[in-house]
Amino acid sequence: MSLFQKHQPLLAKAIEALHARTFFAAFPEHPAPAVYGETADADGQTKFKNYLGKKFEELKQTPANAWAGEEESPYTQERLGISYPQYPVSALVENSKKAFASWRKLSADERAGILLESLDRVKKRFFEIAYATMHTTGQGYMMAFQASGPHAADRALEAIAAGYEELNRFPVNVTWDKPMGKFNLQLNKEWRAVPKGISVVIGCSTFPTWNSVTGIYGSLITGNTVIVKPHPGAILPIAIFVAEIQNVLTENNLDPNTCQLGADTFGHMITKELAEHPEVKLIDFTGNSLFGSYLEALPGKTVFTEKTGVNSVILDSVNDADKVAANLAFSVNLYSGQMCTAPQNFFIPENGIDSPSGKISFDEFAQKFITQINSLVDNPKAGPFVLGAVQSKKTSERVIDSEKLAGKVLLKSRVVENPQFKNARTATPVVIELDANKKEIFSKELFGPIALLIKTKNTEQSIALAQELAQTHGAISCGAYTTRAEVHDQIADAMALAATPVSFNLTGGIYMNQNAAFSDFHVTGGNPSGNASFTNPEYVTKRFTWVGHREPVKA
Amino acid sequence: MSLFQKHQPLLAKAIEALHARTFFAAFPEHPAPAVYGETADADGQTKFKNYLGKKFEELKQTPANAWAGEEESPYTQERLGISYPQYPVSALVENSKKAFASWRKLSADERAGILLESLDRVKKRFFEIAYATMHTTGQGYMMAFQASGPHAADRALEAIAAGYEELNRFPVNVTWDKPMGKFNLQLNKEWRAVPKGISVVIGCSTFPTWNSVTGIYGSLITGNTVIVKPHPGAILPIAIFVAEIQNVLTENNLDPNTCQLGADTFGHMITKELAEHPEVKLIDFTGNSLFGSYLEALPGKTVFTEKTGVNSVILDSVNDADKVAANLAFSVNLYSGQMCTAPQNFFIPENGIDSPSGKISFDEFAQKFITQINSLVDNPKAGPFVLGAVQSKKTSERVIDSEKLAGKVLLKSRVVENPQFKNARTATPVVIELDANKKEIFSKELFGPIALLIKTKNTEQSIALAQELAQTHGAISCGAYTTRAEVHDQIADAMALAATPVSFNLTGGIYMNQNAAFSDFHVTGGNPSGNASFTNPEYVTKRFTWVGHREPVKA
After folding, report:
1. Which residues, given as ranges, of chain B have pLDDT below 70?
2. Partner A, chain B 519-538, Cβ-Cβ below 8 Å
3. Most buried in the list A47, A76, A495, B29, measured by CB within 10 Å?
4. In angstroms, rounded to a whole number, what is the distance separating the alpha carbons of residues A67 and A261?
5. Cβ distance A336 to A372 under 8 Å?
6. Other Cβ atoms closer than 10 A to A439
7. Where in chain B is the domain with CATH 3.40.605.10?
């Protein structure tokens, strides 16, 4: 049985799920022993510890002369000491070019088989990936497991499914038969989905696998070779993915350089040189807007970006203000606000929020919000684990600096102790009250646990501001609370025009930060927060070109 | 019965045809009286003559204060004297913005109904469009009828079908139902295909409808409003399309400014100002590479280009050299080489071309080619009508100048007399022999009836040059003649990598210049000849954004 035959049933289900857009997940999201094995967690932790202080020698790609690595755990604030092979850009490109010659000639079925098999292998390594993710990104254990493991694998599967579907969208060949009156003109025609060439996937420090695997698998399924350029601070989680892809390639007598790890260091970043190399045709990027926009403007490249955005919450009217405050408090605490989907700007009318028990004033709601934040943060069984640690020192500094913004600090950020890691870099959310006329402050992304409560004239102004910010500065998510149908429609329309998905009236255990594979398009591509979307058809069709050849049918 | 219901059967067939890619045409390509009516041709000619020297007053868009027009017939070399409403860019954009507010809210069905109805109306005007096309572009009657009428309408239908299909690719709403163990998380989700906004379609002087209608209909079906900016030398053909779209809009109580004609003059071109306007989100362009590349680099715009290319013919081995020469001679004569798909560079090995009767030397094949050109050109019943007239004086000058190129002039260009139009601007093909080392000469587009016979070392070099030119300077078509299977595969692969479709071994009544709707992707988007393709899925998906909203199911 070929790898394609082995995985074909899952692929078929995934393609169906792409269109159904109801709940679908191929990889169980809970790290349950019953699912993953009784010793899976302990084994994963051991494997992670064994990496520390050593060369990462699992890769099958062309050996390197130099090794380096600078990852540091936000939980221990110590170096991991893992080193990765280092290459000149020319060598990565040359290796990729050679691998392209054979990878592009495989059928979509063959490529799908290889890639699906690699996900199957990665599944057995979700726990070590989880620990690797914790100790590079600062994510809490549960998020690290889910986001870097099953959720990333589901997103990868989604990209494979979308690519496979598009590759099969048009016939391989047909006879074109045109009646000309006395005779028919007949041509044999064939269509080829021609991959664009070498693809570079540039990772970020906070979601090293989730934000990279769609580009990696999206490029690979469509016949391109990939150079994975992780953030120098978060290499290990994606290195394990790459190692498993290379294992399956090698076992199937394919060139392991089809997917290379091109790690670098803070002192010698290769990203620009890679991106500008004329042989590099595709670039995937997650990160800051400045660099993303520079990449988007590179001539002759197809570029997919997720940049920064300013996410808003519009508060108009609620059924239960405490539940709303609790839900939003969780959203700003989750991974210390270091998600691209975390809310930053909370627009609240100066006259307050309508509720069944009457108006809730701005100050009352602010108090409820602060109470919920404190209650979560100060719960030793939840707070430290929901918050995780702060990936970058700069984020901690930004949180402290935010207290000097021209607003009223309603809640100061604190350092909480993580029971497992005494030295963890932590920061609880800072909450600042601002007037709606302070647009210069709230119209940029303040990455980290920073929540701005913005006092607007009314909901009209709240909507107008949320829309304007999304259109001019980008937004990846939006929360809205209203019990009035006409306001609901107004928000849905205004934010749709700003290409921003809205989560309405979320309470309980679901949050605006969350985005599910096979259902939620992640980033829409229609506002400045990024030009690409996980995983719409464009995300894969732009990675190859339809070329048709034709020839008269022989008489 | 709604317009959608009326046209739904055709739409369904067109969507099927998009995927089948076999022959499909909704609009009969022959100007047969039996199909279009006994008096259709004469009526069309009369209608065309009635336009001359007057204001074009058929448009329903906001009236203008100024009128101007500078079209000139390449057949008479006299001004048509037709004037069109002129607007400041700000007025066109303001009108479009207003129309967008309602057009975007129509359903895909409603928009499809309106647009399909407009094609039905245009069908009744194919003859006047044909005469308008002849006397602006210089095309011969038959090409003018086919390209600007039925073939353009088929391409428009193709864009409507592709857009309609993509708009319906994902469900309008679903319940997302995630099992959480003890309970299910349930969200109502909905997806909206949000149009990007104002679309500007920039026309060219040689194919004023064929090259513009895909962008116009592609943008309209996906909910964008359109400003049509024709070439100042070829307005009337597309003005008639726009008039019919506006008629249907007005009859259905919709804003006629949904699709405006934004004509300008050579002395006061509005293209740049329009393209750079911040409210303009989509740009379609056919024309020169310099301007096309400038448009592609505009930040924040989605741009679709067809620019220039250098089309090659690779001659390796043939079954019947005379038939091959005849086919290629027709290709260079057709519309005096003014098609973007016309061949320019003919690569012939210095040792000649293999054939069943032995080697045909370079000189022998050159002679056969010249003989076939002369025989067609000097046939008074065919030559003048196949050649048509030369649209621009610059093209005539380029043909004359080409005789000074550093090659051997094998055939000089001549002026032939058109029996119907004594004053027609004509030019027969010039044929020049060049050595393969003269790459600086043959690596640019020499627009017009200019054929370069390039002597290569062998077929390997021919293929390498054709591939390199396509990759570095772009190519829209490629012809190849070989009877050897391995060379066939080699060419198919090399040109596929250069994103160039190859027509193999064409003889008889089909030519490499021709591209059929619903089957041949026109321009692939994968080389410098343009970044877009008629009509692949990307051509329509890039015109809108998928945005999903969600809300918990009420308990």
Report:
1. none
2. 519-521, 524-526, 533, 536-538
3. A495
4. 12
5. no
6. 14
7. 3-22+31-174+196-307+532-541
pLDDT in tens, A135-153: 999 999 999 999 999 999 9
Longest C-alpha distance within chain A, in Å?
Answer: 88
- Could you tell me if A146 and A161 are in contact, meaning their C-beta atoms sit under 8 angstroms apart? no
- Which residues in chain B are contacts of A492 at CB distance < 8 A? 192, 549
Q: Look at domain B3-22+31-174+196-307+532-541 and name its CATH class.
A: alpha beta
Name which of B282, B334, B341 is nearest B313 in CA terms: B341
Q: Do B550 and A505 touch (CB under 8 A)?
A: no
Is A555 a residue whose pLDDT tops 90?
no
- CA A474 – CA A527 distance, rounded (Å): 5
Tokens 């041949």 — which residue? B520
| Count, residues in chain B | 555
What is the pLDDT, as a whole number, of residue B555? 72
Q: Model ipTM?
A: 0.97
Residues 140 through 169 of chain B touching chain A, CB cutoff 8 Å: 166, 169
The C-alpha atoms of residue A191 and residue B472 are separated, in whole angstroms, by 22
* Alpha-carbon distances of A384 from A75, A419, B144, rounded to whole Å: 11, 8, 73
Q: How many CB atoms lie within 10 A of CB A78?
A: 11
* CATH 3.40.605.10 is the classification of domain A3-171+194-307: yes
Per-residue DSSP letter, A382: T
Asked if residue B501 lies in contact with residue B466, where contact means CB atoms within 8 angstroms, the answer is no
**Structure tokens, B421:** 């139009």
**Mean pLDDT, rounded, of chain B:** 97
Domain B312-504 maps to which CATH number in 3.40.309.10, 2.60.120.200, 3.40.50.300, 2.30.30.30?
3.40.309.10
| Residue in the block written with tokens 């807007």 | A289
Note whether A510 contacts B: Cβ–Cβ < 8 A. yes
| HEC string for B168-224 | CCCCCEEEEEEECCCCEEEEEEEEEEEECCEEEEECCCCCCCHHHHHHHHHHHHCCC
Looking at residue B399, its pLDDT comes to 96
If DSSP states are collapsed to H, E and C, what string results for B286-314? ECCHHHHHHHHCCCCCEEEEECCCCCEEE
Contact criterion met (CB below 8 Å) for B85 and B62: no
- The chain-wide mean pLDDT, for chain A, equals 97
Burial of A422 per CB tally in 10 Å (0-12, 13-18, 19+): exposed
pLDDT at residue B543 in the model: 98
* Residue A172, pLDDT above cutoff 80: yes
- A115 pLDDT more than 90: yes
Extract the tokens encoding B435.
């050595």
pLDDT digits (tens, 9 = 90+) for B253-306: 999 999 999 999 999 999 999 999 999 999 999 999 999 999 999 999 999 999
Instruction: Give the whole-angstrom CA distance, residue B18 versus residue B20.
Output: 6
- Whole-prediction pTM value? 0.97
Q: Is B468 on the interface with A (CB under 8 A)?
A: no
pLDDT for position B499: 98
Within 10 A of A90 (CB to CB), how many other CB atoms are there? 11
For chain A, helix (H) and strand (E) counts, in that order, are: 20, 17
Put simply, the answer to whether A192 touches B496 (Cβ < 8 Å) is yes
Rounded to whole angstroms, the Cα distance separating A406 from B198 reads: 38
pLDDT attached to residue A181: 87
Q: How far is A265 from chain B (nearest CA, A)?
A: 31
Phi/psi zone of residue A439: left (φ > 0), alpha (ψ -120 to 50 degrees), beta?
A: alpha
Q: Where along chain A do the CATH 3.40.309.10 domains lie?
A: 312-504
Residue with token string 């303040």:
A446
Query: Which residue matches tokens 């006397």?
Result: B135
Taking a C-beta distance cutoff of 8 angstroms, is the pair B421, B76 a contact? yes
Quote the CA–CA distance of B320 and B326 in Å, as a whole number: 10
Mean per-residue pLDDT, A449-460 = 98
